[in-house]
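Justification of resources, computational component.

The compute hours requested in this renewal are based largely on the per-chain cost of generating structure records like the one below. Each record pairs the submitted sequence with a full structure-token output. That output is archived, and it is also reused by downstream analysis tasks.
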Amino acid sequence: MTIIVLGAGLSRRMGENKLLLPYNGRTIIKSVITTALSFSDDVMVVLGYEKERMEEALSGLDVRKVYCPDYIEGQKTSTLCGIEQVRNDDFAIVPGDLPLLTYDDYAGTYEMLSDHSIARAVCSGIPGHPVMFRKEHREKLLGFSGSLKEYLAMYDIGRYNGSIGTVLDADTPQRYKAIVSGNRDLSVLH
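The structure output for this chain reads:
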């Protein structure tokens, strides 16, 4: 299983690079990658915004780094950039701002792939991450012109009831505060 960690975004809603903010004695991105590496030894990080700072933050981690030159065009571009680099393997997509994601969230979602070709974690009915795909979806996704949401709507997806870490991202100052304070109230998502 190749885990694609999306780390190329501009962090517009946060106002600064959210992936480099501190969480539990390290950066958010390092926390996300450490958990991903506990599940798979093939973790790829898609970089774009502040590439040099991000590479520095990733030093010492055994990850593949992929640069997306068109990162400014949005998450779909970065996602496709990562998918292009997947070898003959099943793969997962995970935003780099989910520091509360757990090993169990990965393992439970992966278990759903035994009966479905796509699986995703959900929390309280809210679609979250990881989103996992069997390898036959690689070429289909690369050739699909719509959004990932539109692609997922075409399939019967296995859903794993995961932790709050599958949906609580550090996208805004309020969400980041909820993460670092230990407030696990889903109302910050709205």
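The longest helix spans residues 28-39. The helical segments are 28-39, 51-57, 75-84, 103-112, 137-142, 148-153, 173-181.
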